[in-house]
Amino acid sequence: MSRLLIAPFSALEQTVRRYRPPHLLTLLNEPFVPTPQGIHPDRHLRICVHDIAEPLEGSIAPESSHIAELISFGRSWDRTAPLLVHCWAGISRSTAAAFIVLCELHGAGHEERIARALRFHAPHAQPNRLMVRHADLLLDRQGRMIAAVEAMGAGTLVIEGEVVELPLTLDEL
Question: What pLDDT sits at residue 171?
Fold first, then answer.
């Protein structure tokens, strides 16, 4: 069965070699991440945002249009092979993106279950709240996505997250 993978930037090359994902989602403002060998450029989405939860002068805050693009990219993934999501540390932007992709995949009513699974598989996860707020509005979840992430509580403090494999089926979550 395919998986949704989360990784920090430092583990990107090793994770691509190990899992051979055909889809890659990069959530970084800098550095520019070239498309790794084995991934078609059309299957590598780069969303250039900073890891901030509120707009901040001089920074690029995640906007609704970024999250709409993320959701569309997630919908284009056929789930026959892994999707790899990464940011700088694998803690905030990438865990928010994974949460969003899984919430869209499973539809309304599963937000809390998905958040609990994210916490179980990624104890360090601290999903970017601004990204989740945008997704909650775009997916018409009426605050359920935000509430589910808030209910996760604080993640384990780490400098950098580990590579995480999230199952895709509700039975495995």
Answer: 87
Please check whether residue 26 is in contact with residue 45, taking contact to mean a CB–CB distance below 8 angstroms.
yes
Whether the full predicted model's pTM is greater than 0.90, yes or no, is yes
Residues of the chain where predicted confidence (pLDDT) is lower than 50:
none
3-class SS at 86?
A: strand
> Which residues neighbour 91 within 8 Å (Cβ) at sequence distance 6 or greater?
8, 124, 125, 126, 155, 158, 160, 161
Distance between CA atoms of 137 and 143, rounded to whole angstroms?
8
Domain that holds residue 42: 3-162
Structural domain tally of the chain?
1
Asked whether residue 47 is domain-assigned, the answer is yes
Please name the residue ranges forming H helices in the chain. Answer: 12-19, 64-76, 93-106, 111-121, 129-138, 144-151
170, part of any domain? no
88 in any annotated domain: yes
Domain-located, residue 111: yes
CATH number at 158 reads 3.90.190.10
Angle at CA 45, nearest 5°, toward 1 and 156? 65
pLDDT value of residue 173: 84
Contact 153, 37 (CB under 8 A): no
How many C-beta atoms surround the C-beta of residue 126 within 10 A? 23
